[in-house]
Amino acid sequence: MHSASTALTFVLSLAIPIAAQTIPYYHMWADTNGVSHVSQCNFTDLQLQLLSTGDSPQYLDKIGSTFSNGTYSNTNFTTDITFTVQPAGWSAGWHKNPKVQFIVPLSGSWTIHMTDGSVATMGPGEVALGEDQFATAISSGEYAGAIGHNATNVGDEAVNLMIVQTDWIPKVGEPCWLE
Fold first, then answer.
1. Which of 21, 106, 114, 174 has the highest CB neighbour count under 10 A?
2. Coil, strand or helix: which one is 11?
3. Half-sphere exposure of 171 (CA within 13 A, CB side)
4. Any idea what the Cα angle at residue 60 is, between residues 13 and 77, rounded to 5°?
5. Domain ranges (residues) in the chain
6. pLDDT in tens, 55-74
């Protein structure tokens, strides 16, 4: 049985325009020339649904699944979930994401540097989609020899990350394609 406050919360959530129902994320991607970029994007396909029987409706975007006749079906989304602890001062060096993957800092501050010069700094709860598998080495200039991205920790504390790898085939030149 739901309390009056739960019912009020549900009614108020319905009053929020659907445009407000978004979740931001950063997208690391490569263009057709192999240059890596980071774009600010939003998950916007959130639908008011039940996550489980008996649950109150909430806005969901079940990425990797399709919704039909009131149920979701998985399309072989996840291959691995990894938790990492990166020590203070950690730097990955220039590399590409091993698979299309979501990276979520759980604590600390984490920065990604791209070969186009763009930088994104993320804190706990922010999301990045790593999809720069088709990046190629930069031949000249400030980023000569760099490929993909360089991830570094900010400050003097360790950074804890959750990484969710997928079976998706990487896209090229399509920033924010999940919107």
1. 114
2. helix
3. 10
4. 170
5. 4-166
6. 788 777 766 555 555 555 55
